[in-house]
């Protein structure tokens, strides 16, 4: 990411940094294609919640080190699959509320996937779970779930049909298809394709554009978009109006109007 970023916290396999209102989470297991272990899942949840609770953070970028974004869950001697396959608990007792895909969906801070390399399985779903995606021209999205005898367990069966429609989602999921960057762009799965060495800069540019807007309004917009996916138009308009009222009372609204009238860039404080 940006040269101005300095790590504020990190573990060996997952890095977290914050600078200029942007939090960056980086998968850091290049020797294992950035596959995710059980401890990494827990730490990823912690980092996402930490960033969302930080008033200084206005956008979150997720990326990988080396040649891969994330090649999915670490299945070799994995504590993840062993715990699930050996568990005698019923599905009703499994806590799925505090998992990375669920947290990604529910947090109000905008998220950007900087897909620097191939994203497979769980890694693909994590990328699709972000609000926006920048993809390297050499990267691929691999829906390898059915080839491994599982379903897209991390939100793909909910997200993909909503992004590209039932028929195309069915083709990709049922056949375990791998998509090139060009195919991903054509389907609208990513916002932009850039050269492999420009992914970080492009994601930073997008994150800075988000961070430069009124954070309360941006977060409210994301909440409204999320709610709108599961409610009628009339209900949605009502909820948007209720959300608009407190924004009219915010300092950011006053600053937005003042900067417009004075023809200067706004300086939003998130209050």
List keywords for this structure.
single chain; 271 residues; alpha/beta; 2-enoyl-CoA Hydratase, Chain A, domain 1; Lyase 2-enoyl-coa Hydratase, Chain  A, domain 2; 2 domains; 7-stranded mixed beta sheet; 11 helices
Question: How would you describe what is shown here?
Answer:
The model is unreliable at 1-7 and 83-87 (pLDDT under 50). The protein has 2 domains: 7-211, 2-enoyl-CoA Hydratase, Chain A, domain 1, CATH 3.90.226.10; 215-262, Orthogonal Bundle (Lyase 2-enoyl-coa Hydratase, Chain  A, domain 2). The chain has helices at residues 38-53, 79-86, 100-106, 122-129, 156-164, 166-175, 181-186, 199-211, 215-228, 233-248, 251-262, and strands spanning 7-10, 14-19, 22-27, 59-64, 68-70, 111-115, 118-120, 132-136, 140-142, 178-180, 192-194. It is globular and about 55 Å long. α9 (215-228) runs antiparallel to α10 (233-248). The strands form 2 sheets. The chain has a 7-stranded mixed β-sheet, with helices on both faces. It has a 4-stranded mixed β-sheet with strand order 5-7-9-10. The protein has 11 helices and 11 strands. It is an alpha/beta fold and 271 residues long.
